[in-house]
Amino acid sequence: MFAPIKQKAFLYLIKELDYTQKEAQRLIAKGRLFVNGEPMTRTAGEIEGDFEFIYFEPITKGLKPTAVHDEFVVFDKPSGVLIHPQNRKTPYSLIDELKYQFGRDANIAHRIDQETSGLVLCARNKESERDIKMMFEQRDMKKKYLALVHGELKDALCIEAPLLRREDESAIVRMVVKVHEDGKASKTDIKPIKYFKDKNMTLVECSPYTGRQHQIRVHLFHVKHSIVGDPIYGQSEEDIIRFLDKELDDKKRIELSGASRLLLHANELEFELYNNIYNIKSKVDFEKICRESMITDTKCE
Protein backbone atom coordinates (compact mmCIF):
# COMPACT_ATOMS: atom_id res chain seq x y z
CA MET A 1 0.00 0.00 0.00
CA PHE A 2 1.07 3.61 -0.48
CA ALA A 3 0.44 6.77 1.55
CA PRO A 4 1.23 9.85 -0.61
CA ILE A 5 1.67 12.18 2.37
CA LYS A 6 2.71 11.73 5.98
CA GLN A 7 -0.35 10.90 8.07
CA LYS A 8 -1.63 8.88 11.00
CA ALA A 9 -1.76 5.22 10.02
CA PHE A 10 -5.17 4.62 11.57
CA LEU A 11 -6.65 7.58 9.66
CA TYR A 12 -5.34 6.12 6.40
CA LEU A 13 -6.97 2.75 7.18
CA ILE A 14 -10.26 4.45 8.05
CA LYS A 15 -10.27 6.37 4.77
CA GLU A 16 -9.00 3.68 2.39
CA LEU A 17 -10.41 0.48 3.90
CA ASP A 18 -13.50 1.82 5.68
CA TYR A 19 -12.49 0.64 9.14
CA THR A 20 -13.80 2.29 12.28
CA GLN A 21 -11.18 4.05 14.41
CA LYS A 22 -11.40 1.28 17.00
CA GLU A 23 -10.89 -1.44 14.36
CA ALA A 24 -7.98 0.37 12.70
CA GLN A 25 -6.14 0.98 15.96
CA ARG A 26 -6.73 -2.59 17.15
CA LEU A 27 -5.23 -4.02 13.94
CA ILE A 28 -2.20 -1.74 14.22
CA ALA A 29 -1.73 -2.75 17.86
CA LYS A 30 -1.80 -6.41 16.77
CA GLY A 31 1.14 -5.79 14.45
CA ARG A 32 -0.69 -6.01 11.13
CA LEU A 33 0.98 -2.92 9.63
CA PHE A 34 4.63 -3.11 8.51
CA VAL A 35 7.00 -0.27 7.64
CA ASN A 36 10.34 -1.34 6.13
CA GLY A 37 9.57 -4.89 7.19
CA GLU A 38 9.06 -3.98 10.84
CA PRO A 39 5.63 -4.06 12.53
CA MET A 40 4.26 -0.74 13.76
CA THR A 41 2.41 -1.25 17.01
CA ARG A 42 1.92 2.37 18.10
CA THR A 43 -1.73 3.12 17.38
CA ALA A 44 -0.89 6.80 16.82
CA GLY A 45 2.07 6.02 14.53
CA GLU A 46 2.50 7.78 11.19
CA ILE A 47 3.14 6.43 7.72
CA GLU A 48 4.43 7.86 4.44
CA GLY A 49 5.22 6.10 1.18
CA ASP A 50 5.14 2.30 0.80
CA PHE A 51 4.06 0.01 3.62
CA GLU A 52 2.47 -3.40 4.10
CA PHE A 53 -0.83 -4.14 5.80
CA ILE A 54 -2.22 -7.63 6.47
CA TYR A 55 -5.99 -7.80 6.51
CA PHE A 56 -8.65 -10.51 6.25
CA GLU A 57 -10.18 -10.89 2.81
CA PRO A 58 -12.92 -13.53 2.96
CA ILE A 59 -13.52 -16.08 0.23
CA THR A 60 -16.52 -18.27 -0.55
CA LYS A 61 -17.01 -21.90 -1.47
CA GLY A 62 -20.72 -21.41 -2.01
CA LEU A 63 -21.96 -22.82 1.31
CA LYS A 64 -25.54 -21.59 1.68
CA PRO A 65 -26.99 -20.82 5.12
CA THR A 66 -29.74 -23.02 6.53
CA ALA A 67 -31.63 -20.04 7.95
CA VAL A 68 -31.37 -16.27 7.33
CA HIS A 69 -32.95 -13.65 9.60
CA ASP A 70 -32.43 -9.90 10.08
CA GLU A 71 -30.24 -10.34 13.17
CA PHE A 72 -28.61 -13.73 12.59
CA VAL A 73 -27.93 -16.56 10.16
CA VAL A 74 -27.33 -20.27 10.71
CA PHE A 75 -24.93 -22.40 8.68
CA ASP A 76 -24.86 -26.20 8.50
CA LYS A 77 -21.08 -26.60 8.78
CA PRO A 78 -19.56 -29.64 7.07
CA SER A 79 -17.19 -31.85 9.03
CA GLY A 80 -13.56 -30.78 8.50
CA VAL A 81 -14.26 -27.06 8.15
CA LEU A 82 -12.73 -24.84 10.84
CA ILE A 83 -14.83 -22.17 12.55
CA HIS A 84 -11.93 -19.66 12.49
CA PRO A 85 -8.55 -19.88 10.75
CA GLN A 86 -5.82 -21.51 12.85
CA ASN A 87 -3.16 -19.28 11.31
CA ARG A 88 -2.45 -17.13 8.25
CA LYS A 89 -1.97 -20.25 6.12
CA THR A 90 -5.51 -21.57 6.74
CA PRO A 91 -7.07 -21.42 3.26
CA TYR A 92 -10.74 -21.38 4.29
CA SER A 93 -12.94 -21.41 7.38
CA LEU A 94 -16.57 -20.73 8.18
CA ILE A 95 -15.81 -17.10 9.07
CA ASP A 96 -14.76 -16.65 5.43
CA GLU A 97 -18.16 -17.74 4.21
CA LEU A 98 -20.02 -15.65 6.77
CA LYS A 99 -18.18 -12.39 6.15
CA TYR A 100 -18.14 -12.88 2.36
CA GLN A 101 -21.92 -13.22 2.30
CA PHE A 102 -22.99 -10.93 5.15
CA GLY A 103 -20.27 -8.33 5.62
CA ARG A 104 -17.51 -7.41 8.03
CA ASP A 105 -19.76 -6.87 11.07
CA ALA A 106 -21.10 -10.43 10.92
CA ASN A 107 -19.46 -12.78 13.39
CA ILE A 108 -19.73 -16.36 14.65
CA ALA A 109 -21.37 -16.52 18.07
CA HIS A 110 -20.14 -19.93 19.31
CA ARG A 111 -17.88 -22.81 18.32
CA ILE A 112 -18.11 -26.46 17.44
CA ASP A 113 -15.11 -28.70 16.79
CA GLN A 114 -13.57 -28.83 13.32
CA GLU A 115 -14.70 -32.43 12.80
CA THR A 116 -18.16 -31.91 14.27
CA SER A 117 -20.71 -31.10 11.59
CA GLY A 118 -23.94 -29.17 11.97
CA LEU A 119 -25.57 -25.92 13.00
CA VAL A 120 -23.52 -22.82 13.81
CA LEU A 121 -25.32 -19.65 14.88
CA CYS A 122 -23.83 -16.41 13.53
CA ALA A 123 -24.71 -12.79 14.35
CA ARG A 124 -25.18 -10.28 11.54
CA ASN A 125 -24.20 -7.20 13.57
CA LYS A 126 -22.35 -6.18 16.73
CA GLU A 127 -25.51 -5.76 18.83
CA SER A 128 -26.94 -9.19 18.04
CA GLU A 129 -23.48 -10.73 18.51
CA ARG A 130 -23.39 -9.42 22.07
CA ASP A 131 -26.92 -10.61 22.83
CA ILE A 132 -26.47 -14.07 21.28
CA LYS A 133 -23.21 -14.64 23.14
CA MET A 134 -25.00 -13.64 26.34
CA MET A 135 -27.60 -16.33 25.62
CA PHE A 136 -24.90 -18.96 25.48
CA GLU A 137 -23.26 -17.69 28.67
CA GLN A 138 -26.59 -17.76 30.52
CA ARG A 139 -27.48 -21.19 29.07
CA ASP A 140 -30.63 -19.88 27.40
CA MET A 141 -29.77 -21.87 24.27
CA LYS A 142 -31.12 -25.41 23.91
CA LYS A 143 -28.92 -27.60 21.70
CA LYS A 144 -29.39 -31.14 20.45
CA TYR A 145 -26.71 -33.25 18.80
CA LEU A 146 -26.77 -36.59 17.04
CA ALA A 147 -23.93 -39.07 17.47
CA LEU A 148 -23.13 -42.59 16.40
CA VAL A 149 -21.57 -44.44 19.32
CA HIS A 150 -19.91 -47.80 19.84
CA GLY A 151 -21.97 -50.51 21.51
CA GLU A 152 -25.67 -50.90 22.23
CA LEU A 153 -27.31 -48.20 24.33
CA LYS A 154 -30.75 -49.46 25.38
CA ASP A 155 -31.94 -46.83 27.83
CA ALA A 156 -31.77 -43.06 28.17
CA LEU A 157 -28.96 -41.69 30.34
CA CYS A 158 -28.38 -38.52 32.29
CA ILE A 159 -24.62 -38.08 32.62
CA GLU A 160 -23.51 -35.68 35.35
CA ALA A 161 -19.72 -35.86 35.51
CA PRO A 162 -17.42 -32.86 36.21
CA LEU A 163 -14.98 -32.05 33.40
CA LEU A 164 -11.41 -30.82 33.74
CA ARG A 165 -9.13 -29.68 30.95
CA ARG A 166 -6.03 -31.80 31.41
CA GLU A 167 -2.92 -29.99 32.62
CA ASP A 168 -0.30 -32.60 33.36
CA GLU A 169 3.05 -33.86 32.19
CA SER A 170 1.76 -34.61 28.67
CA ALA A 171 1.85 -31.16 27.10
CA ILE A 172 1.36 -32.56 23.62
CA VAL A 173 -2.16 -33.75 24.41
CA ARG A 174 -3.07 -30.51 26.16
CA MET A 175 -6.44 -30.42 24.40
CA VAL A 176 -7.64 -33.57 26.14
CA VAL A 177 -10.44 -33.13 28.70
CA LYS A 178 -11.18 -35.68 31.41
CA VAL A 179 -13.77 -36.48 34.05
CA HIS A 180 -12.33 -35.33 37.36
CA GLU A 181 -13.75 -34.33 40.74
CA ASP A 182 -11.92 -30.99 40.51
CA GLY A 183 -13.57 -30.18 37.16
CA LYS A 184 -16.56 -28.00 36.34
CA ALA A 185 -20.08 -29.36 36.78
CA SER A 186 -21.33 -30.78 33.48
CA LYS A 187 -24.56 -32.47 32.43
CA THR A 188 -25.65 -34.26 29.25
CA ASP A 189 -28.84 -36.20 28.51
CA ILE A 190 -28.44 -39.12 26.09
CA LYS A 191 -31.36 -40.82 24.31
CA PRO A 192 -30.97 -43.87 22.03
CA ILE A 193 -32.62 -43.61 18.60
CA LYS A 194 -31.56 -46.66 16.57
CA TYR A 195 -29.31 -49.65 17.09
CA PHE A 196 -27.29 -51.03 14.17
CA LYS A 197 -26.85 -54.67 15.20
CA ASP A 198 -24.49 -55.60 12.37
CA LYS A 199 -22.02 -52.91 13.46
CA ASN A 200 -22.84 -52.92 17.19
CA MET A 201 -23.32 -49.13 17.05
CA THR A 202 -26.16 -46.90 18.30
CA LEU A 203 -27.44 -43.61 16.93
CA VAL A 204 -28.16 -41.33 19.90
CA GLU A 205 -29.49 -37.84 20.59
CA CYS A 206 -27.43 -35.73 23.01
CA SER A 207 -28.73 -32.70 24.91
CA PRO A 208 -25.95 -30.83 26.75
CA TYR A 209 -27.09 -28.53 29.56
CA THR A 210 -23.62 -27.06 29.98
CA GLY A 211 -21.19 -26.06 27.26
CA ARG A 212 -17.82 -27.49 28.31
CA GLN A 213 -15.11 -28.21 25.79
CA HIS A 214 -15.54 -31.71 24.26
CA GLN A 215 -18.40 -32.32 26.73
CA ILE A 216 -20.43 -34.80 24.69
CA ARG A 217 -17.36 -36.67 23.53
CA VAL A 218 -15.95 -37.05 27.05
CA HIS A 219 -19.27 -37.95 28.66
CA LEU A 220 -19.96 -40.68 26.09
CA PHE A 221 -16.43 -42.05 26.49
CA HIS A 222 -16.95 -41.96 30.28
CA VAL A 223 -19.99 -44.29 30.02
CA LYS A 224 -18.12 -46.67 27.67
CA HIS A 225 -19.93 -45.54 24.49
CA SER A 226 -17.31 -43.44 22.72
CA ILE A 227 -18.29 -41.72 19.48
CA VAL A 228 -17.45 -43.58 16.29
CA GLY A 229 -14.54 -41.86 14.55
CA ASP A 230 -13.25 -40.08 17.67
CA PRO A 231 -9.44 -39.91 17.27
CA ILE A 232 -8.81 -38.79 20.85
CA TYR A 233 -11.21 -40.20 23.45
CA GLY A 234 -10.76 -43.94 23.66
CA GLN A 235 -7.36 -43.92 21.93
CA SER A 236 -3.84 -44.44 23.25
CA GLU A 237 -1.68 -41.39 23.91
CA GLU A 238 0.63 -42.51 21.11
CA ASP A 239 -2.22 -42.55 18.60
CA ILE A 240 -3.59 -39.22 19.87
CA ILE A 241 -0.19 -37.65 19.21
CA ARG A 242 -0.07 -39.24 15.75
CA PHE A 243 -3.50 -37.73 14.98
CA LEU A 244 -2.55 -34.26 16.26
CA ASP A 245 0.68 -34.39 14.23
CA LYS A 246 -1.35 -35.44 11.14
CA GLU A 247 0.53 -38.73 10.93
CA LEU A 248 -2.55 -40.97 11.24
CA ASP A 249 -3.87 -42.00 7.82
CA ASP A 250 -7.55 -42.73 7.17
CA LYS A 251 -7.10 -46.49 7.05
CA LYS A 252 -5.42 -46.63 10.47
CA ARG A 253 -7.91 -44.15 11.94
CA ILE A 254 -10.83 -46.28 10.73
CA GLU A 255 -9.18 -49.34 12.22
CA LEU A 256 -8.78 -47.58 15.58
CA SER A 257 -12.01 -45.58 15.85
CA GLY A 258 -14.47 -46.99 13.31
CA ALA A 259 -14.68 -44.05 10.89
CA SER A 260 -12.54 -41.48 9.08
CA ARG A 261 -14.40 -38.56 10.71
CA LEU A 262 -16.00 -37.82 14.07
CA LEU A 263 -19.65 -38.89 13.75
CA LEU A 264 -21.10 -36.06 15.85
CA HIS A 265 -23.60 -33.56 14.42
CA ALA A 266 -25.13 -30.37 15.87
CA ASN A 267 -28.72 -31.05 14.82
CA GLU A 268 -31.03 -28.54 16.51
CA LEU A 269 -31.00 -25.08 18.14
CA GLU A 270 -33.86 -23.53 20.12
CA PHE A 271 -33.69 -20.04 21.60
CA GLU A 272 -35.54 -16.78 22.18
CA LEU A 273 -34.14 -13.58 20.69
CA TYR A 274 -35.82 -10.16 20.70
CA ASN A 275 -39.16 -11.67 21.83
CA ASN A 276 -39.19 -14.28 19.07
CA ILE A 277 -38.77 -18.01 19.66
CA TYR A 278 -36.74 -19.93 17.07
CA ASN A 279 -36.39 -23.66 16.55
CA ILE A 280 -33.89 -24.44 13.81
CA LYS A 281 -33.15 -27.97 12.65
CA SER A 282 -30.35 -29.21 10.45
CA LYS A 283 -31.30 -30.17 6.91
CA VAL A 284 -28.56 -32.79 6.80
CA ASP A 285 -29.59 -36.46 6.92
CA PHE A 286 -27.08 -37.53 9.54
CA GLU A 287 -28.32 -41.11 9.70
CA LYS A 288 -27.60 -41.38 5.99
CA ILE A 289 -24.08 -40.00 6.59
CA CYS A 290 -23.55 -42.63 9.29
CA ARG A 291 -24.73 -45.42 7.00
CA GLU A 292 -22.49 -44.20 4.17
CA SER A 293 -19.58 -43.95 6.60
CA MET A 294 -20.12 -47.55 7.66
CA ILE A 295 -20.11 -48.72 4.02
CA THR A 296 -17.11 -46.60 2.98
CA ASP A 297 -15.11 -47.50 6.05
CA THR A 298 -15.74 -51.21 5.66
CA LYS A 299 -14.07 -51.03 2.23
CA CYS A 300 -10.96 -49.58 3.84
CA GLU A 301 -10.44 -52.46 6.24
Report on the structure:
With 301 residues, the chain is α+β, with helices and mostly antiparallel strands. It has three domains: 2-53, Roll (Structural Genomics Hypothetical 15.5 Kd Protein In mrcA-pckA Intergenic Region, Chain A), CATH 3.10.290.10; 57-138, 2-Layer Sandwich (Pseudouridine synthase); 141-301, Pseudouridine synthase (2-Layer Sandwich), CATH 3.30.2350. The chain is 26% helix and 30% strand. It has helices spanning 9-17, 21-29, 94-102, 126-137, 215-222, 237-244, 250-257, 286-299; strands spanning 2-8, 33-35, 38-40, 46-50, 52-53, 67-68, 72-77, 107-108, 117-123, 142-150, 157-160, 163-165, 177-179, 187-196, 201-208, 264-273, 276-281. The strands form four sheets. Strands 6, 7, 8, 9, 10, 11, 14, 15, 16 and 17 form a ten-stranded mixed β-sheet that branches. α1 (9-17) crosses α2.
Strand segment count: 17
Number of helices: 8
Portion of residues within helices:
25-40%
- The shape, in one word, is elongated
Taking the alpha carbons of the first and last residues, their distance comes to 54 Å
**Total separate domains:** 3
CATH topology of the largest domain: Pseudouridine synthase
The stretches of 5 or more residues where confidence is low (pLDDT under 50) are none
Radius of gyration: 22 Å
